[in-house]
């Protein structure tokens, strides 16, 4: 709610927290024996979800670590048949959605939900196939799920264990768009192979309307609003 930004540091199994508009580290959250990949924030609840790709040594799969307002306490969730966890986002009701995958080639994409106040993850079947799991977001009405390979965002209505596709947004000139942020009628995405961050109309997509260049391989994007 204060606009703090959380950045996973997978080389040190930790998450770095910075105040809005600052380059001075506020605090470090430790995620021991995990490989933190991305994170998501549920601002009204002051809840942070750290999505762990896998364990540090790869001996077991990843999952998600939920940090409540008291950052020194966390709860871990995982599914035994899911190995890699990638991106996640909370919807307006506090449900957490994540895309993931198994180790075997036959299961390159799995979508899971941690319902609000639930004690375990559940699988959601989406009416769409994905080549490479991309960013997950809540656009105010639908759960948005990206395919990084095609730089396309698909929108779903989630009903129970099924996700019904209601539309898609193709990000033209995007070259392997990974994490993105949806802000009203704009989507801002990390153009990983394009060495840039691009802005597109949402949900219209099409050609980019703005570009930030001079980056290496940008992977994550976050929007930090100043507190009022």
How do you describe this structure in short?
The protein is mainly beta and 228 residues long. The protein contains no helices and 19 strands. An eight-stranded mixed beta sheet has the order 8-9-10-11-15-14-13-12, with no helix packed on it. It has a four-stranded antiparallel beta sheet with strand order 4-5-6-7, with no helix packed on it.
Task: Give descriptors for this structure.
19 strands, 228 residues, 53% strand
* Strand arrangement across the biggest beta sheet: 8-9-10-11-15-14-13-12
Which spans have pLDDT < 50 for at least 5 consecutive residues? none
Number of helices: 0
Q: Could you say which overall geometry the principal axes of the C-alpha atoms support? A: globular
Radius of gyration: 17 Å
What is the overall pLDDT average?
93
What class, by secondary structure content? mainly beta
